[in-house]
Amino acid sequence: MARDVYRAEYYKKGGKAMLPIKWMPPEAYIDGVFTIKTDVWSFGVLLWEVFSLGMMPYTGCTNREVMEMVSGGGRLEKPYGCPQEIYRLMCECWNPNPEERPAFAQMFDRLQRFLQVRKKKIERCQGTPGWNEVPFD
């Protein structure tokens, strides 16, 4: 989904660049530190967007409010219907200590295992009455 970075409130001008505050960890918007662990945080927000079916993170909050909330330990809530295992991964991505955030290779393996388990559950249910009404969670 493309976003107009020049008219959107969720970007903050930082020097000459527009910064996507709602996708950034505290070390990025406070200290200007950008690493692969910063990307992991942003990936956690992307996962949240996917499992919330495209909702805007921190809807109704200004950049300043998001920065204060996240710096104070606040995090996005679990989207409706999101499996606990996926939300747990999101929360790990949002660890305040960058070194304790998961590596992308770890996340890939975990997501792949999650999908394999889900696929097996769906295959077992196919053909039974109401099989497509099995809740995702």
TrEMBL record:
Pfam entry (one): PK_Tyr_Ser-Thr
InterPro entries: Kinase-like_dom_sf, Prot_kinase_dom, RTK, Ser-Thr/Tyr_kinase_cat_dom, Tyr_kinase_cat_dom
Swiss-Prot/TrEMBL keywords: Kinase, Receptor, Transferase
Record-annotated Protein kinase domain positions: 1-115
A single cellular component GO annotation: plasma membrane
The keyword Coiled coil appears for this protein: no
GO biological process, alphabetically ordered: cell surface receptor protein tyrosine kinase signaling pathway; regulation of neuron differentiation
GO molecular function: ATP binding; transmembrane receptor protein tyrosine kinase activity
Name of the molecule in the record: Leukocyte tyrosine kinase receptor
Organism the protein comes from: Papilio machaon
